[in-house]
Amino acid sequence: MSSSQLLKGVLEGCLLSIISKGETYGYEMIEKLAQHGFTMVKEGSIYPLLLRMKKDGLVNTIQKEQPSGGPKRKYYRLTEAGQEELNQFKMRWNEMATSVNRLIEEEAE
After folding, report:
1. How far is CA 109 from the centre of its chain?
2. Contact at 8 Å (CB) between 78 and 59?
3. What is the mean pLDDT of residues 32-47?
4. How far apart are CA 63 and CA 24, in angstroms?
5. Prediction pTM value
6. Spatial distance between the Cα atoms of 77 and 54, rounded to a whole number of angstroms
7. Residues ≥6 apart with Cβ < 8 Å to 108
């Protein structure tokens, strides 16, 4: 299994986590992901996911003017459903990480 296949399963939770910290736009999310080691994630991979998250009611969007006077940016923010999904993701992730770590440590012994 490649790292990109693993990433597909966790990218939504990572985006929800970033958005939960405050309104943010797409390119800013890419930068935050890269700062945390997700350098393989490109803009083209998050926008379809953000669109689906909006359709699923996990995020809302708002258009805002840029201070520099450029085109408006679309900012994302969590809905209540998005916060609940993030909470569920954290719980599932912690359970899975614990199980995988236990298995790996057991195999090494």
Report:
1. 35
2. yes
3. 91
4. 11
5. 0.87
6. 10
7. none
